[in-house]
Amino acid sequence: MSIQRKYYHVGQLYMIARHSYEQTENGEGVETIINAPCEDPVHGKGQFTEKRIHLSNRLPYWVQAIIPKLFYIIEKSWNYYPFTCSFIPKLSVTIHTKFEDNSGTTENCLGLAGEKLVERIVDFVDIAYDEVSPKHYKEEEDLKFFQSKKTMRGPLPENWKNTTSPIMCSYKVVEASFEVWGIQSKAEEYIQKTIREILLLGHRQAFAWIDDWISMTIADVRTYECEMQRKTNTKVNACVSDPEIDEKSTELEGESSGRVLKSPKSFSPLTNLFSPSSSSSSSGQNNTSWFSW
Q: What are the Phosphatidylinositol transfer protein N-terminal domain coordinates in residue numbering (predicted)?
């Protein structure tokens, strides 16, 4: 991505909030339950979020046949940018991310070892020339044609990864486990494919929306984030009713509540990947999350 790593924190938060709002309709999408400050003895102050991902009707029919009609996934995330730890209980989807100011040239950015290193499949995602699903395509977000009016970056030509400056890369290790007999392989392949599409679309949008967020501070984007979360929750709750939502709604603006949450007890790098204490660590910019990109 033709952005310096230090600026991406604001762009990432802006993109997630706006993308979640635009992709939410008819009671399906991303609902924020908690957004509050948190602390970790190693990583310091950060932000905790708990989200519900409503997606029953967006799943393939062979998945819908085995789940309840009202179905959502819970994501919990501890964000100490540039470090983030997130997990999705039971379904076991883990994404470890590290951002670096290069074009994807680091061979083992996240420090995999042993079987994980041997078995990994490296997939280069090109935000300009990989095609998104037709239902997600917008000409104004096509980076082959887009040019920023504020930064004058873009359009991105062929071989842009080797000719563009500044440039950063988002390195990710995506692991998925869905242990249901008969459909495990099919489900895990579907999860990997879906996550790739989400990440491709989200990073395209982060760059295409750069003129909207490049002048924002962290305080600005947190205000925007809170506003968009409330609007998104309203769209979800127009079709979904849950008494717990009303009880937790006052926690959405965590900074004003005075409540500080604690991070998981364990933050050992790339170990215990399918537990609530799964984590990553790095000297660079690092994320682990379903919707933290």
A: 3-229
- Is 21 within the bounds of a domain? yes
Token couple for 202: 């989200």
What interhelical angle do 8-22 and 184-208 show, nearest 10? Answer: 120
Q: What is the pTM of this model?
A: 0.69
Q: Is residue 284 part of a domain?
A: no
Q: What is the CATH number of the domain that holds 77?
A: 3.30.530.20
The alpha helices in 86-170, defined as continuous H runs, are 114-119, 160-163
> What's the domain range around 20?
5-238
Give the chain's domain count. Answer: 1
143 touches 128 (CB < 8 A):
yes
Q: What is the DSSP string of 219-232?
A: HHHHHHHHHHHHHH
DSSP output for 123-136: ----TTTSPPPGGG
SS3 188: helix
Residue 67 lies in a domain: yes
